[in-house]
Amino acid sequence: MCGIVGYIGYREAQPILVDSLEKLEYRGYDSCGIALCGSTMILRKDVGRITELEKRLSRCEAHRGIGHIRWATHGKPSQANAHPHLDCTGKIAVVHNGVIINFQQLREQLTAEGHHFYSDTDTEVIPHLIEKYYSGDLEQAVYHTIADLVGSFAFAVLHEENDVLIVARKESPLVIGIGDKESFIASDVSALLNHTSRVIYLEENDFAVITGNGVRVVNQRHKVWRKEREIPWSVESAQKGGYEHFMLKEIYEQPTVVQNALREYLSLSGNGLNIDMIKNARTRGVLLLACGTSYYATLLGKQLLEKIAKVPVWAEVASEFNYSEMVSERFLAVAVSQSGETSDTVKALKKAKSMGCMTLAITNVLESSISRVADQTLYTRAGPEIGVAATKSFTAQLMALYWLALSSSAVEMQICQSLLQEMRLLPDKIQQILDNAERIIPCSQLLAQFEHVFFVSRGLNFPIALEGALKMKEISYIHAEGYAAGETKHGTFALLTPKTPVIAITSPDNTYDVLLTNLREMKARDVPLITIASENDQEIDKFADEVIRIPDVNPLFSPLLNTVVVQLLAYYTARERGCSIDMPRNLAKSVTVE
Ligand code: F6R
């Protein structure tokens, strides 16, 4: 979604802003712009990619500026609606993430007072309010402006007469990069990796005045100290490293992701997390909250916690939970989110907390919003995920949920230890799938010809069927549905024809025989049938058109291996269809609006 960058220091700001905006491209956007301040304000913005805008930029020596990528919410993608937005004098420029709920009312007031608006955005009221309140003291003008705003925001202000950048945040993230005689701002650290590893994360309602020589942070009009931190991610981790796409790179990073998770969790100490909190939950129940791919992780998490830890679990789509009457004060609420910024998930966790639940965040991003809300956080440490489609972060979430189930397990310690022993073999098994990835390509070439596909499974692998379908539709634009195989006869069968391939995920567990019965019924409707099956499974060859093999594994862990296969299937199908894999149309990496 929208991204903010800014620079103030001794170097030319323009190339730094362009580079930083490029690093945020993965978030998904439709227009972009920069404002630079030398002796006067220079504004460049348009619809389309940053590389297109860059071609039209002439050299500018200004040493401070702000930039933005926009994912349209208020008003269609257009040059007028792109950020930065200016006031009437053209001396004040603002970039903003978030939503100003009362913008219509403010706009009407300001219009009555003589201000002219050029865009349909909620953001444009901010520079006009600053203009209204400015009488030589920019800080005061921004304070007064914030007092008028209802909604969420992270915004940055550039003023022709003030050699500073001013930023403020409420419910939208903002990070300040500290350099040597230069400072940077960004809505996420990926934009800063090329320039500095020293950062300050702003907290809720912080306001900061930034110069090339430092940062002064204020909260509730009092100066506050915010700890400087080292970014834990390397520059290389956010580059393609020779892979055709970030998504492929991230799929191939999964053996390492699993290995790292094992190293962290195997001692069952789980990064200092208070396990008692989870154990206490046994008597109460666990409420899992998430969206999209992360929600599918929670669907497996539910089964694992119920099966291994014998805890009653509810897995809820965050956006639905937020408007439900579900009463949850006696639960442990666990919010799962790669970005930690998904608006619905943050809202759901806040709701659960306000009902009296204990709260835990499982997230990949340090200092993200859900980690600020939760009582405790379990970081999945998958490294930066740039491809819009979640891959390694999903696997890392699954590992965290396996750990949660095992560490709060009602299973005997001996069995628990032997399960952990089997988990140690997982990185190698995933690597084996990746080493044979080329064998999946013919199946993808087949799938690429169809417009509708079904992913089916049962039990522990049902969430992986849902995830496979989501991956397929979001990057290949093929209509894909994930189904519990037993449910297909209750309506979906009407759609089965030779034009609707079925991808079935099998596992030699208690669902195997009944799943095969379901598949035979589907095959009788002449569907092209691709199955994902264990290397030891001979039965499946008798009726599947194609079989993708995974190494033999304890069925409890088969979802981790099958995940990699469905990701590769989606990836190669999208590649076959020539789709924009890392930045699928209309999608954003982190969904910060409801
Ligand atoms: C799909 C995908 C999305 C996200 C969802 C939640 O590949 O990435 O469905 O899983 O938007 O995002 P997070 O996990 O950041 O809360």
Descriptive tags:
594 residues, alpha/beta, Glutamine Phosphoribosylpyrophosphate, subunit 1, domain 1, Rossmann fold, eight-stranded antiparallel β-sheet, seven-stranded antiparallel β-sheet, binds fructose -6-phosphate
Plain-language structure description:
It is a single chain. This protein is an alpha/beta fold and 594 residues long. The protein has 3 domains: 229 residues, Glutamine Phosphoribosylpyrophosphate, subunit 1, domain 1 (4-Layer Sandwich); 185 residues, Rossmann fold (3-Layer(aba) Sandwich); 144 residues, Rossmann fold. Helix content is 34%, strand content 23%. It contains 19 helices and 25 strands. The chain has an 8-stranded antiparallel β-sheet, with helices on one face. It has a 7-stranded antiparallel β-sheet with strand order 5-6-7-8-12-13-14. A 5-stranded parallel β-sheet has the order 17-16-18-19-20, sandwiched between helices. A hairpin with a 4-residue loop joins strand 9 and strand 10. Helix 4 crosses helix 5 and helix 7 runs parallel beside helix 13. 55% of the residues are buried.
